Amino acid sequence: MTLTGISKENFDDVISHCQSIRSTKNRSLRTCIALLLVKLRTGLSNQMLSTLFNIEKSGVRRALRTARKELTETFTPNYVGFGHLSRRDVIENHTRPLAQEIFGSIVEKPAILVVDGTYIYIQKSSNFKFQRRSFSQHKNRPLVKPMVIVSTTGYIVSVLGPYLADLKNNDANILKHSIKTNVEDIQDWLQQDDILVVDRGFRDSIDFLDSLGIKAHMPAFLPKGHKQHTVDEANSARLVTKIRWIVESVNGRLKQWRYLQNVVPNTQIPYIGEYVCLIVALCNKYRRPLNQGNQDSDQILGAKMKYLASQRNMLQERVESEALHRRISSWKALDAEDCVVEFPRLSPDELRNLTVGIYQLKLARSYTTEHLSEDGDYSIMVNSEIPDVLRVRIQSRHISSKQYLLWIQYSSGSVTGWYCQCRAGARVVGACAHVASVLWYLGYGRHTESITGVQNWANYLEDAAVIPELMDESESEDSATEE
């Protein structure tokens, strides 16, 4: 598993697809396939593989070429591509019930796919035209872009490309090109009312997909001049991200094969597509789906999220109508032990029920570590005129000069509302990471025996911004007097 990414039993199954490779005096069939899998999994150089396998470097190159051709012809087509499984198979066996509940239809279930591009870095080329077309202004380095199409369970349906990386090859143009050129008969596979879940990079392809009868779900853009999404925009974006995260996890799984994570030599560019498809085929065949979901719990969660998406943020309206964000003098900072004794204790399950996910809770410990004061308490602000609402100021984790105010409304037994001034802070389908961190600390973290902080590695480094004084003022005065 460490060297090849698959178990011994899986390796034997791969070997069963490769009977046409003949053994030589320098390497056997198993060694030939093992060389390629170790190369992809570890990203080792041919020189290192030559040392490990005790084969000359020229023999390693020949073995890698032979194994790549054989697996590309006999193994890969069975487990990746629109032709290797039907649309009905994706709907019945590779669609999470939560996705059908949120975006689909109970009567006629559509095919729901999640689409995103990934990056494979390459060397800078001495061919100036190719250098310009392979340079990504987004990543500021040369790369190629495969387009990954996955189901909502994490099963990889197909990988398109790889494509160039210039402005003409953005995600929207790649998707339109694939459909217009009917790559892998994608036009016959997709049908009217099927659903594609995408990110904002596909904005220029939305009208094209609509003309084909394909529904695209994408998070809304923040209008120019606005600092925060509306409640409806933030809620709809949360519905999209609840389904779209799967493609990011799939890309992370693919990059576990170090060959795709390292900088690929330009001499290997002709074979990048074959290597990517081979790794995808190995994942589809031998790895478990990232998230199959549960029929009952997914339907309940989906119905809950759709209901919440139609609600208003009553606390936001209260903050704006009563100008709670302007009445600075009315809010007093108190110790957490004194001011939030009545704040309800929350179990991990109750926290996940409030945040409708775990990503925000994963960030809670990091936010809490930064905002704990010397005596170990959050800086909580309360207003004597509003006993059921507390206010907290949270530092942005991205921008040092930016802070957000947030409000949480609660009773003795439950949390009844929240609102944060960040971009997504108005949503009621779950909570932003700032609100989630306060809920985690006040409802759960401060009641545990100890809160394990996140290590600050800056303590082991020098800081040029801090210049210690060589002597204090009294020493300066004494030295001046002596002189």
Q: Identify the CATH architecture of the largest domain.
A: 2-Layer Sandwich
Q: Summarize the amount of helix as a percent range.
A: 40-55%
Major sheet attributes: 7 strands, mixed
* Count of β-strands: 12
Compute the average pLDDT: 88
Give the overall silhouette.
Answer: globular
| Helical segment count | 20
Sheet/helix structural class: alpha+beta
Radius of gyration: 28 Å
Distance between the termini: 74 Å
Low-confidence stretches: none
Bin the strand percentage: 5-15%
Write down the CATH topology of the largest domain: Nucleotidyltransferase, domain 5
Q: Which CATH C-level class of the largest domain is it?
A: Alpha Beta
Could you say how many structural domains there are in total? 3
Written description of the protein model:
The protein is an alpha+beta fold and 483 residues long. The protein folds into three domains: 67 residues, Arc Repressor Mutant, subunit A; 225 residues, Ribonuclease H-like superfamily/Ribonuclease H (Nucleotidyltransferase, domain 5); 146 residues, no CATH class. Helix 3 packs across helix 4, helix 6 runs parallel beside helix 14 and helix 11 runs antiparallel to helix 14. 38% of the residues are buried.
What is this structure's SSE topology?
Layout: H1 8-15, H2 29-42, H3 46-53, H4 57-74, H5 87-93, H6 97-103, E1 112-117, E2 120-121, H7 128-133, E3 135-136, E4 141-151, E5 156-163, H8 171-180, H9 186-189, E6 195-197, H10 206-211, E7 215-217, H11 231-254, H12 258-261, H13 272-286, H14 295-309, H15 314-321, E8 332-334, H16 336-339, H17 348-355, H18 359-371, E9 380-383, E10 386-395, E11 403-410, E12 415-420, H19 433-443, H20 473-482
Parallel strand pairs: 1-6, 6-7
Antiparallel strand pairs: 1-4, 2-4, 3-4, 4-5, 8-9, 9-10, 10-11, 11-12
Helix pairs in contact: 2-4, 3-4, 6-14, 11-14, 18-19
